[in-house]
C-alpha cells in the first residue's frame, strides 16, 4: 500500500543486495567480516583505478 501511495520502491536496495550476494558466492567465503566489507566497498564503490587515458578511451562515460 505504501509503495503505491508514496510512489517508492525497494528495487534499488534489492539490486544492491543481489550484487553483494553474488560477491559472496564468487568468493567462496571470507575469514572475517572486515575483509568481506572491504571487498564490497572495492567492487561496489564506483571507483575507477585505470590511468586517465585508459579510462577515457575504453570505459563508458560516467554521469
Can you describe what's shown?
This protein is mostly helical and 63 residues long. The protein has one domain. It is built from four helices and no strands. The N and C termini lie far apart (33 Å).
Report strand %: under 5%
Query: Segments where pLDDT lies below 50 for 5+ residues?
Result: none
Q: Helix/strand-derived class? A: mainly alpha
Distance between the termini: 33 Å
Count the DSSP helices.
Answer: 4
The total beta strand count reads 0
Helix content: 55-70%
- What do the pLDDT scores average to? 80
Number of domains: 1
Largest sheet: none
- The oligomeric state is single chain
Order of helices and strands: HHHH
Radius of gyration: 17 Å
Shape: flat
Nutshell version of this structure?
65% of the residues lie in helices and 0% in strands.
Which helices and strands appear, and what pairs or packs with what?
Elements: H1 2-6, H2 11-27, H3 33-44, H4 52-58
Amino acid at each position: 500500500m505504501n509503495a503505491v501511495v508514496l510512489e517508492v520502491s525497494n528495487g534499488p536496495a534489492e539490486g544492491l543486495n543481489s550484487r553483494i550476494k553474488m560477491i559472496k558466492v564468487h568468493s567462496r567465503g571470507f575469514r572475517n567480516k572486515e575483509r568481506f566489507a572491504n571487498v564490497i566497498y572495492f567492487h561496489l564503490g564506483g571507483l575507477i583505478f585505470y590511468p586517465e587515458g585508459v579510462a577515457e578511451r575504453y570505459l563508458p562515460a560516467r554521469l
